[in-house]
Amino acid sequence: MHALTALRLLPWLSAEGKPCFLVPGEDGGIVSRFADATEARQLADGLDVLRSARRALDDVLTPNAEVRYTAIRLAECLADALRVAESRGRRLPTADDDADDGEDDATGHETGNGTGDRDSGACS
What ranges does the record list as Acidic residues composition bias (predicted)? Predict the structure, then answer.
């Protein structure tokens, strides 16, 4: 598998606001399962916020402060959904995966080393 597609973008940022990546193990470790659960929760939260936003925006009497709060929450959920989409897109197989075996990570991100059924990762 190509080194770039092997890295999993995690659904959270480091304390410094930088992206975190994981080199998943063969069977998927605890961090992979936690990331899966986090992504599922983020997408479900996005649906809840979308439903609330539609109600608020359909009511012409909704106060400006509530509309602003709704916009902030929608932006947060959109950012989460885009991160999930990017992470899942990176893991899709491509036609040139076989030809690229053994290449280094060209992004400059620190990745860690995955072995066996354990996950390894870092935030860059």
Answer: 95-105
Give 62's contacts (C-beta < 8 A, 6+ positions apart): 56
| Backbone phi and psi for residue 48, each to the nearest 5 degrees, phi listed first | -60, -45
Identify the residue whose tokens are 């992470």.
87
C-alpha torsion sign, points 93, 22, 40, 47: negative
Is-above-0.85 flag for pTM? no
Residue length of the chain: 124
Q: How far is CA 31 from CA 42, 106, 118, 120, in A?
A: 16, 24, 8, 8
Count of alpha carbons within 13 angstroms of residue 41, beta-carbon side:
8
Decide: 24 and 7 in contact? Cβ < 8 Å.
Answer: no
- What confidence score (pLDDT) does residue 98 get? 56
DSSP state of 46: H
Report how far residue 71's alpha carbon sits from residue 94's, in angstroms, rounded to the nearest whole number.
36
Q: Give the pLDDT of residue 122.
A: 66
DSSP SS3 for 13: strand
Residue in this structure with the two tokens 């470790």, named with its chain if needed = 29
